[in-house]
Amino acid sequence: MIVMKFGGSSVESAKAIQRVAAIVRDHADRQPAVVVSAMGKTTDKLLQIARLSAAGNRRAAGLELAKLRQFHLTEGSYLARAAQAIRLDRDVCALFDELDRVLLEVADSGSLTPRLSDAVLSFGERLSSVIVTAGFRQAGIDAVHLDARDAIVTDGHHTQAATLFIETNALLRRKVSSDQVTVMGGFIGATEDGVTTTLGRGGSDYSAAIVGAALCADEIQIWTDVDGMLTCDPRIVSGAHCLRSISFAEAEQMAKSGAKVLHPATVLPAVRHGIPIVIRNSRNPNAAGTRVVAESSCDGAVMSIACRTGISLLQLIPRNTPVTADFGSEIWQAFQRADVQFELIATSRKELSVVVDAAALTPEFLQRLGELAEIEVEENRALVTLVGQNASRNPSNLTRAMRSICRKQGRSVLAWCSDSRFAFVLAAEALNSAAEALHHEFFAQPDPALFIPNRASVMVVERASVRNSARIALNSLQ
Ligand code: ADP
Ligand code: ASP
Ligand code: MG
After folding, report:
1. For 289-310, how does the pLDDT look when each residue is reduced to its tens digit (9 = 90+)?
2. How far is the CA of 200 from the centre of ligand 2 (A)?
3. Under a CB-based contact definition with an 8 Å cutoff, are residues 61 and 39 in contact?
């Protein structure tokens, strides 16, 4: 059997869901189980509504909620007819009534606790899975809905719950149908006592891997809105090429570095079971996609460029002493206690340099760090990371990257590397041009054995090089 996961963009509207139904029908002979994300940006909207409710802004919360309700009812009404439509309308209304009650609880408590946040956000996937099931049935697929909270058992770490695999695997094996298409929401689960939890933002990929691993799937397909893992975020570089394959480790590095096409933890259950993952485009189902496999297809080459924004560079300078192990351990403990993720990018005798999400730098956390060290914060930074197995061990990669970055920046930038990635910290406004320059340097003529070339961008490069040779030939004649 296979697991097919459809992200928010793939189920953003009735039309998108009809496309998804056609894709699932095409895979009927492979016994698919389907995992869906919330429709479009629903999770962000739910979060916004929950925050408004917590802040006592009931009117604004009510208006946004009414829009979200109407959106789900309208899209649902395009998908189902007759008795099916009446049932769907009733189910969607019941979910929104329940959401109303949870939001009242949020308003009464005056704060969005992690438990309440999970309860509110779960509605995105609960709604989409019900609507997609109805859409599938209308399209002639024998689909059955499974509430993910009845199958994915987690601990009680709200907003980032960990799966209890023994219980989850047993439930999934019992509840996922082998002769019907089971449709369930990703991202959500419940504790053993039945309290709703979530697996972390972007967690539907993880849900797909959990289901795939439990059922020993032949393949996990992650359907999204791009042809696969690309050589750079297409919103930043227009001529990006599609990778034929990428290793689990490289995909994880990409996700950590900002290319969240695949949730980092996705790879874990699948890696343990050796299950291949393939990233595919629900708007272009004929494209082969990118296979996420155990081994990298190339050693020492740059395979992709990831971009991350919304970060700050933090310099931590000990007072009156050089950087010592004690100093470092106090700092790391402070990060751990505040649950703030960071990347250590440089250590010297004088200071530690780390990058962190700007949103994590709350006044309280900065105050705590300020008690331990002198701190300097550079805001509005971005990170551009080149990923590829052992790419940073190849000096020519480093030289080429440094040159193209510095040519654009006009000065050197902070850089650091590990085996499979090397990265540069830049001013946020310099990110796009730096990414373009790096992409041109490494991918102007992609190796067709490794990449499915973006024909448009390759033609531009070919035309430019023909013009160049013509100019050189002309010059030599003159
Ligand atoms: P979904 O809604 O399917 O979960 P996501 O928004 O999580 O989709 O991930 C797909 C998006 O990731 C793409 O639309 C693209 O803009 C972005 N992205 C960033 N970096 C890359 C990359 N290297 N390759 C492909 N997509 C990328
Ligand atoms: N809907 C959730 C989110 O937006 C999970 C997911 O889409 O993977 O984070
Ligand atoms: Mg996603």
Report:
1. 999 887 888 888 999 999 999 9
2. 8
3. no
